[in-house]
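REQUEST ID: PR-0412
SUBMITTED BY: lab tech R.K.
PRIORITY: routine
TASK: structure prediction, single protein chain
INPUT:
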Amino acid sequence: MLPVKRLAPLQTQRQAISREENTIPVSGEDLPLVLVVEDNSDVVSYLSACLEGHYRLEVAYDGQSGIEKGIERVPDLVISDVMMPRKDGFEVCLTLKSDTRTSHIPLVLLTAKADIESRLQGLEHGADVYLPKPFNKTELLVQLRRLLELRQRLQAHYLALAGASNAGELELGEKEENEFVLRIRRKVEEHLSDPGFSVDRLCREMAMSNSQLQRKLNALTGFAPNHFIRYIRMLDAQRLLKNTTLTVAEIAFQTGFEDPAYFTRAFKKEFGVTPTGYREG
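STATUS: complete
OUTPUT:
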């Protein structure tokens, strides 16, 4: 439960956090990033102790800063208090869930109000989990782990959606995220034969920064943007290998590969079989 002992004042707490990014350092650069939106220094300190060794932690001390950091950093999870200055947790939740760049992020709301009406209000604003204060450390960690596990299970769905010939048959996942994956697939397909179509160009067409696209696409599919572009090219190559008499070299050029030998190596690495083996299989 939350500690009753008074901790250091807010200014002292803030000084302990990186002035550049407001990130509380915990070990492991590959750990999931949690954005905590909370104006109470005691709760920030307690959450830091709970999450240390499991997650990296970034802090925003009011709702408006939480929205800005959420869009800029695209964390893996957001934990937000409800009652805060500038914007409350409901506004944080609604804004992040309505923005294409952050709509996929699981969001936990914390509040001292435990009544059913408050819980329903939080869920209606898009919260994935609603925890009353004081909260239990074990329960918090279990809830966060389950949210990440659910997201990982959905990665197979979004990858299938990226290659589905009939996307209407795939009904899992959130509508916004399904539409995002389909939109980014279309962007790649529009430039399929262009070997110069890069991640930077994809970012511009999606109106996202490189880091925003990287974190969102990796969260949904497990693929970095350059891998996703190559994967869509490979899927079209599969179709051409099965449905046309084009040579492997012609298919390589048609799907944006300037070097047929590299195309063959990349195809085998992706699918475990050479283009010729796939056509004959």
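NOTES: The chain is about 55% helix and 10% strand.
REVIEWED BY: pending
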